[in-house]
Model the fold of this input.
Amino acid sequence: MSRVKSKDSSFVLETERLTLRRLDEPDAEFILGLLNEPSFHQYIGDRGVRTEEDARAYIRNGPMASYDRFGFGLWLVQRRDDTAPIGICGLLKRDTLPDVDVGFALRPAFWGAGYAFEAAAGVLAYGREAFDLSRVAAIVQADNQASIRLLGKLGLEFERKLDWPGDSAEIHLYARDLA
Done:
């Protein structure tokens, strides 16, 4: 991971192939598509985002509110070579978990190229550097084998099953110390 000076205040971090930046309302069209992918609904959940206005509200009330409150949140992941938006990745602080957790979701067209690992590894390093995080968690559905493999590559280990409010799927908590 490298951080570079940027005139763009939305810039967060850069990896070998990716740039992560803050989400903003002009990203609504991309977010609308991502949040309505069948895989997003299956493994993360239906956020009820059906229009671009819904997507703008999601960005305002979710990621942007998190930036204001915690200094971090979900960030837009873009390829550096063509600035194509490919997904979101970032740090979340949920009322239901004691630790900050890492979250990620990519459009299926970009799966299998190592982008999710690259983005999440950059986010973990950034969390340690910028926010002095000593531990990070992740939540995942028990049947989401691809994300579980990714969490293992990132060094997160299974800790326990969770009773997750409003979710009938079996949810697992993974975690790792960043020190």
